[in-house]
């Protein structure tokens, strides 16, 4: 196996078969930071025999992050693609196929009716959690795994907003085992657990060479286990789609959820109307895979981001006090007041808190780009097919770009009109890419901050029993 190339870069020394995987360890970010400190702003590592170039230089990142078909493809997942999941959004490397689906999803997510429905769904499902806590007759507060509750909470929201179907994951989550669980609640929890397992397996699929997945004992066993989990999830999603199709056939009205948008496009395809201007047409299989992508994307990443947001707020009591103050000013003192989209738009400090949290811990810490042409990056010539890893996490925490980046300081995102420092420069605006960049940036980058603002407004009602215990 030959690791030589015409553009040698700093980085760990690879070995045959494994490349540099053997030294990554269980904490890839710590391994990355160690190598970045030694290797500089452009360096390389290997997954098997495949070369990967890491870029955290702002000027080079700007070249790679511009919307361009030339540098468009993302990190391939061969095992997932051969399971039939490569023609939705996330795993799709076919430009024409991806582009038409991305336009459809952007239109659906940007619809005012969808966003307003999202805010209402968040409030209703949060109220369900509050009702459950009241049923448990808790007098001295409630201790539970907040991150796990968030995943359940966001699963219910994601399923409802994507498919118009109800899941009951929050209803199945309680501090005690004596809460009677329906079969629907149990099935919802199974689905949530399967989603967690799927995201846990992505690192394996991304960093384990295909031949090891297929032929090395242990690796092969785990791959088959992951595939069974994928088939379970896919089957559950197909059942949801078929249920909605039946409802529409029986006269139900179309709504603003994502699945209805996909089914409209599917109907156009069936009618031979795939040339309708500005409308993406979808096959039956594409509806299923696209529903898979958008349903799963709204849970894990958002839950993780909200966990870190809560952590930062809990560790900064002055920030929490300002949040309470803004909520009282915008919504009043009634805890049962309805959160409208217009009122949320006036929560400028909470928006700054969300942005600062996303700067410190990003939803998409990297964007992986694969060039279709020869590229010159940072003075180096790279051949077509080079994999570039743009390090957004490093750019958002670079002391040459941000003042005291280690500090949690929402004021940096708050204009002077609202009491902030308003010190965001154009360079910082580009460096702040918490949802990735270019054509492959997260499709939910408009929706996710709204979700985070709404949830944060709601969960400040929860009294943190011991803020100092957060670590």
TrEMBL record:
User: InterPro entries this protein is in?
Assistant: Cyt_P450, Cyt_P450_CS, Cyt_P450_E_grp-I, Cyt_P450_sf
Superkingdom in the source lineage:
Eukaryota
Keywords from the named record: Heme, Iron, Metal-binding, Monooxygenase, Oxidoreductase
Q: Does the keyword Iron apply?
A: yes
Q: Which GO terms describe its molecular function?
A: heme binding; iron ion binding; monooxygenase activity; oxidoreductase activity, acting on paired donors, with incorporation or reduction of molecular oxygen
Is this entry keyworded Heme?
Answer: yes
Extract the signal peptide range: none
| Residues noted as binding heme in the record, renumbered to the chain | 442
One Pfam family named in its UniProt record: p450
Cofactor(s) the record lists = heme
Give the UniProt family note: Belongs to the cytochrome P450 family.
Q: Which PANTHER family match?
A: THROMBOXANE-A SYNTHASE
Q: What is this protein called?
A: 9474_t:CDS:1
Q: Which organism is it from?
A: Cetraspora pellucida
């Amino acid at each position: 196996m030959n690791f030589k190339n015409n553009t040698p870069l700093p980085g760990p020394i690879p070995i045959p078969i494994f490349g540099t995987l053997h030294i990554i360890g269980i904490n890839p970010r710590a391994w990355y930071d160690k190598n970045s400190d030694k290797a500089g702003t452009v360096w390389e590592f290997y997954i098997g025999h495949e070369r990967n170039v890491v870029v955290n230089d702002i000027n080079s990142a700007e070249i790679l992050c511009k919307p361009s078909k030339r540098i468009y493809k993302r990190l391939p997942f061969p095992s997932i693609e051969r399971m039939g999941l490569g023609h939705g959004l996330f795993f799709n490397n076919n430009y024409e196929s991806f582009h038409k689906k991305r336009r459809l999803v952007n239109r659906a997510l940007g619809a005012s009716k969808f966003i307003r429905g999202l805010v209402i769904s968040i409030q209703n499902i949060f109220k369900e959690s509050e009702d459950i806590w009241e049923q448990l007759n808790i007098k001295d507060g409630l201790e539970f795994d907040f991150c796990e509750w968030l995943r359940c909470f966001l699963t219910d929201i994601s399923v409802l907003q994507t498919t118009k179907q109800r899941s009951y994951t929050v209803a199945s989550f309680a501090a005690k085992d004596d809460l009677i669980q329906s079969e629907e609640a149990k099935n919802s929890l199974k689905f949530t657990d399967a989603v967690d397992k799927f995201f846990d397996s992505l690192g394996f699929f991304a960093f384990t060479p295909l031949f090891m997945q297929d032929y090395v004992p242990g690796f092969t066993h785990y791959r088959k286990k992951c595939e069974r989990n994928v088939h379970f999830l896919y089957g559950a999603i197909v059942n949801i789609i078929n249920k909605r199709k039946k409802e529409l056939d029986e006269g139900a009205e179309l709504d603003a959820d994502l699945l209805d948008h996909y089914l409209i496009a599917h109907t156009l395809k069936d009618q031979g109307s795939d040339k309708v201007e500005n409308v993406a047409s979808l096959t039956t299989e594409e509806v299923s895979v696209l529903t898979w992508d958008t349903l799963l994307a709204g849970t894990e990443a958002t839950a993780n981001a909200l966990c870190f947001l809560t952590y930062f707020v809990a560790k900064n009591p002055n920030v929490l006090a300002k949040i309470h103050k803004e909520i009282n000013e915008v919504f009043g003192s009634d805890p049962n007041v309805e959160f409208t989209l217009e009122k949320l738009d006036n929560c400028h400090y909470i928006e700054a808190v969300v942005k600062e949290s996303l700067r410190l811990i990003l939803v998409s810490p990297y964007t992986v780009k694969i060039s279709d042409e020869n590229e010159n990056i940072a003075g180096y010539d790279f051949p077509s097919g080079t994999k570039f890893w743009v390090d957004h996490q490093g750019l958002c925490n670079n002391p040459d770009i941000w003042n005291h980046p280690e500090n949690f300081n929402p004021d940096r995102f708050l204009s002077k009109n609202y009491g902030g420092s308003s010190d965001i420069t154009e360079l910082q605006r580009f460096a702040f890419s918490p949802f990735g960049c270019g054509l492959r940036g997260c499709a939910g980058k408009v929706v996710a901050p709204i979700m985070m603002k709404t949830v944060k407004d709601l969960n400040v009602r929860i009294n943190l029993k011991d803020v100092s215990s957060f670590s």
